Amino acid sequence: MKKDTKIVSLGRGGEHAPGMVNVPVYHASTILFDTVAELNAAVAGRDEHILYYGRRGTPTQWALKDALTDLEGGDGCMLYGSGLAAITGALLAFLKAGDHVLMSDSVYGPTRVFCNHGLKRYGVETTYYDPAIGADIADLMQDNTKIVFAESPGSLTFDVQDMAAISAAAHAQDAYVFADNTWATGYYFKPLDHGVDVSIQALTKYVVGHSDVMMGAAVANERAWKQLHRGGFMHGHCASPDDTYLALRGLRTLSVRLERHQQNALTVANWLAERPEVHQVLYPALPGAPGHDLWKRDFQGASGLFSIVMEDGTDDAVAAMLDGLDRFKLGFSWGGYESLALPAKPEQSRTATTWESPGPMIRFHIGLEDPDDLIADLDKGFARYTRAL
Ligand SMILES: *Cc1c(COP(=O)(O)O)cnc(C)c1O
Q1: For residue range 142-167, what is the model confidence (pLDDT) as tens digits?
Q2: Which residue's CA is the closest to the ligand 1 atom numbered 6?
Q3: Which of 170, 199, 309, 382 is deepest in the core (most CB within 10 A)?
Q4: pTM, rounded to two decimals
């Protein structure tokens, strides 16, 4: 099956929903058994699709897990109550005191907070690395390095990582490779095909796609699946059936939404790149942008999230620009159908590298509006920006 067929077909109906296009929402905690023999059979089969206990899932969750597993080419999928819970849950399924983690310097902020304040407390040490490191990650590997964590493109600065080179170096030392795949989703990038062992995403963003659900997923290959699965259930991770239903609904239209996000984002990014106020557009899909060649080598497409660096200017000028926008509103969680803007400060979080730019940064999520309206809105914004300088 090609991927467009997959997202429409995977996990649909089956024996639990004969004749129905969509799998029903099963609300369940207790599963009842009539006999000890049936109960024992459920215990024995609890890792398969056999009803055993609500936390272990029902046909609603199995449908989403099966679809995501197949889309990313993995052996299994765990669901979590948020994208961040997927990251922390997957890490904790593998790590123990004394272990070492290599973490990309442009990783999602809350992942960094978890490493610095959570993992540290459990006796796990984190070293941050330059996202552009590639095969040289080998120089940072220690005897106790258990996980190399990548995020490509990285948060705020959109650095594209050489996943195959990083994976090869990590595997040479027997470490696992995790990747946060939220930006591209399994539709535009398949980390497991590039050597990654665990691919994590905030379903909250593009899979749900309508800004109304928090959920996360981790898909693992054969090497990592057993441990991810055991650890996830040990910690009690599960996803609500109603939210899972909405994630499945979002998944069915992921291809057409992403395609339009990409098309609109390219239109707006190209316009922004020509503005005299803009120093640089950080959108890997844009020819000439940082990471464009690697993106072209590895990705099948781009989503609608990118940043711009201004030529010069102040935070007050950025506020004057953003405060008056009509089509864009300020918000953190992207991936919905609506456009968003946000002032961003990558220089405040990096430690392995420094981020230098001539002016402030703005992150945009380009939604499904007509790009002409978005551009007109930004055009007026630039006038306010210049007046406030
Ligand atoms: C939003 C985001 C997350 C966290 O997802 P939540 O569902 O908000 O917890 C993780 N990684 C990246 C790259 C994100 O953008």
Answers
A1: 999 999 999 999 999 999 999 999 99
A2: 83
A3: 199
A4: 0.98
